């Protein structure tokens, strides 16, 4: 089984008795820094205390402040740290938004923008998997 939830929601289920964590083999803490920023430290601690000590723990965080270091030291054993270096400074990233009335107009505008700016890399957000595949195929 896989359980995905915010710390508050998971804690609610534990308290109601609708979720048991006795057999958890892997704990994933994604965006741990964000959870701490939102005030979930005590809730995370309570959840972690309900999980067996023998487990694999994966901790993901965009930043590594002291609070994350403290959690890492407490819940990780023999951790491996993977650090991704930023290739671009945030200040050089440009964002544009164009509102289009229909899909054909959107795709034509996308092609024109890519031809004009010729970015080394870019991100195109689509609404559906089908639309994503269509944009991929057409480009």
Question: What does this molecule look like?
Answer:
The protein is mainly α and 139 residues long. It folds into 2 domains: 7-75, P-loop containing nucleotide triphosphate hydrolases (Rossmann fold, 3-Layer(aba) Sandwich), CATH 3.40.50; 94-138, no CATH class. It has 6 helices and 2 strands. It has helices spanning 7-16, 32-37, 41-49, 66-75, 103-117, 129-138, and strands at residues 26-29, 56-59. A two-stranded parallel ribbon has the order 1-2. Helix 1 crosses helix 3 (41-49). The model has no long low-confidence stretch (mean pLDDT 86).
List its traits.
mainly alpha; Rossmann fold; 2 domains; two-stranded parallel sheet; 2 strands; 43% helix
Task: Give the SSE layout.
Elements: H1 7-16, E1 26-29, H2 32-37, H3 41-49, E2 56-59, H4 66-75, H5 103-117, H6 129-138
Parallel strand pairs: 1-2
Helix pairs in contact: 1-3
